[in-house]
Design a protein that fits this description.
This protein folds into two domains: 213 residues, Rossmann fold; 146 residues, Glycogen Phosphorylase B (Rossmann fold, 3-Layer(aba) Sandwich), CATH 3.40.50.2000. Helices cover 46% and strands 14% of the residues. It has 14 helices and 13 strands. It has a seven-stranded parallel β-sheet with strand order 3-2-1-4-5-6-7, sandwiched between helices. It comes from Intrasporangium chromatireducens Q5-1. This is Glycosyl transferase family 1.
Length: 382
């Protein structure tokens, strides 16, 4: 099986979980990613190819000047489109070379719209099934930089056209699946495989109160981090924001009393979350994709047995309330976030117990079964 993804793979937990699940089921999986670190060693049964260049911001040691940030905002959309096209061409060529050496794969699995055009061309050339695995509602995702409506319209039409030829479509939640079914009634059946995490060790014993709040994820626009910063001024609990940052956004960000830290390995983030006892799962209500999304951060916290403070937006707010995973606050309202923190602290052991009950059904053991069933169906239809 061949997977294509426009990420470095090394930190793409969804891609690695899916690849490992299929490898354990007996498939040999080759992943072609973007600028994969040479030091990365994939799990057993998985091999890696690397195409394209890393983002220009990778390894940056200084912040951009204001004129540089303005120029970046104006040119960002066209720059990203150009780099994506370059990667698609390089990844397709690398896939052809790999197939010449190892044989044509049984399936081409394209992760996200960025991998769909080369995945479609390769699957058509080899006459093998194409699986389209969209990690978000692509046409409704946040757009950073100057918007290009014509490019967005072309992408919408191209996704609809190429997705129709897929043997199967996978996405991350029922909200995104509903939107895709409505947009593309002629697409094949859509299977939901959530961004859940494998079961961990038993959650900590219920504590009387948490020690802090942690946001672990990308530090950039549309994450409600400005609201977190404002709420920090009214809270006694320490707040930590940790993750890769958009340096242009970070240059103008006032964190309030929150502490901003760079990315950490997953194990270090796990330990930081366990010590704090509460995860912040926040994003804006501005974009359709946010109203449909179920972020990795939510399932990461659940896997550790940790309650969350979440933005009351669409699918995210609904899942938190359904399973009692924590408390929610109105988007854009720091006072309501402070209220949500107070409510969580007041009934903290109760929320811990609710998360512990929900862990088995919100786990990768459940979602990986859906993935394996889909692939078994493809094999049976062959």
């Amino acid at each position: 099986m061949l997977m294509l993804v426009w990420t470095s793979v090394a930190t793409d937990t969804r891609v690695l979980r899916e690849a490992e699940a299929l490898a354990k089921a007996g498939s040999r999986v080759h992943i072609i990613g973007r600028a994969v670190p040479e030091s990365f060693r994939p799990p057993d049964g998985i091999t890696i190819g690397s195409a394209g260049r890393p983002p220009l911001s990778a390894g940056r040691t200084r912040r951009r000047t204001r004129p540089e940030r303005v120029a970046r905002w104006v040119l960002l959309s066209s720059h990203v489109a150009r780099r994506m096209k370059e990667w698609q061409t390089a990844a397709e060529q690398l896939a052809l070379e790999w197939a010449h050496q190892h044989g044509v794969p049984d399936v081409v699995h394209a992760h996200d719209f960025s991998a769909l055009p080369p995945g479609h061309r390769l699957a058509s050339q080899w006459s093998v099934p194409l699986v389209y695995d969209t990690h978000e509602y692509w046409v409704g995702r946040p757009v950073e930089g100057l918007r290009d409506p014509l490019r967005q319209r072309r992408e919408r039409l191209l996704e609809g056209e190429l997705g129709r030829d897929a043997a199967a479509v996978i996405t991350v939640g029922e909200g995104v699946a509903r939107a895709l079914r409505q947009d593309h009634p002629c697409w094949p059946p859509i299977t939901v495989v959530r961004n859940t995490f494998p079961s961990r060790a038993a959650p900590p014993s219920p504590a009387a109160a948490p020690g802090g709040l942690v946001y672990a994820g990308r530090l950039a626009a549309f994450r409600e981090l400005e609201v977190v910063a404002q709420a920090s001024l009214a809270l006694d609990l320490p707040i930590t924001l940790v993750g890769p940052a958009d340096d242009s956004w970070l240059a103008g960000f006032d964190p309030g009393r929150a502490v901003v830290l760079p990315s950490e390995p997953l194990r270090a983030v796990d330990e930081r979350l366990r010590r704090a006892g509460v995860a912040l799962v926040t994003h804006s209500d501005r974009w359709p994709n946010h109203r449909l999304a179920l972020p990795n951060k939510l399932f990461h916290a659940v896997s550790l047995g940790i309650p969350v403070i979440a933005t009351d937006v669409g699918e995210l707010g609904a899942m938190v309330r359904e399973h009692g995973l924590g408390t929610v606050y109105r988007p854009g309202d720091p006072d309501d976030m402070a209220r949500a923190v107070h409510d969580l602290v007041t009934d903290y052991p109760m929320h811990q117990a609710s998360v512990a009950r929900a862990r088995p059904m919100l786990s990768w053991e459940q979602d990986s079964q859906a993935l394996r069933r889909l692939y078994q169906g493809l094999a049976d239809a062959d």
